[in-house]
Amino acid sequence: MRTKWYNIIFLMAVLAIYSCDKESMPGQATPGQAFELELGESAFFNKGDFKIFFSQMLGDNRCPTSIECMRAGEAKVKVLVQKSGKVVTSFELGTKPVESIANAVAFEDFNIQLKDVRPYPTSNKPIPTEEYAIQLQID
Prior knowledge:
Elements: H1 2-18, E1 28-29, E2 35-38, E3 42-45, E4 50-60, E5 75-83, E6 86-94, E7 104-107, E8 110-118, E9 133-138
Parallel strand pairs: 1-3
Antiparallel strand pairs: 2-9, 3-4, 4-5, 5-6, 7-8, 8-9
């Protein structure tokens, strides 16, 4: 009788694992859909078998919402790509594509694009680095 219960519990556990929808699991990136990473977080891109990691906020000189500026400014971030647990490359991405930094890069057969950096600056409140999050999309 005890063996029968163990078999039933084992079967239920196996079914639970295989019934998970990997596309909607946290930490997963889906092709063509934007996803958000906080500083230090990563997401696994199953289609390309790699992990993308928001490693560093390089700078944010975007014009605060309550101020009129001569130019909009930009935010810059550093993203790492890992395969098999090893960093294979890193990219610097910016919110405004310029000669020195792009808002999208090619990796293998995929295009990795920086869609947004949050929060947006306000006039009198500096943003602590740990509060930053980025929105990426992989096509």
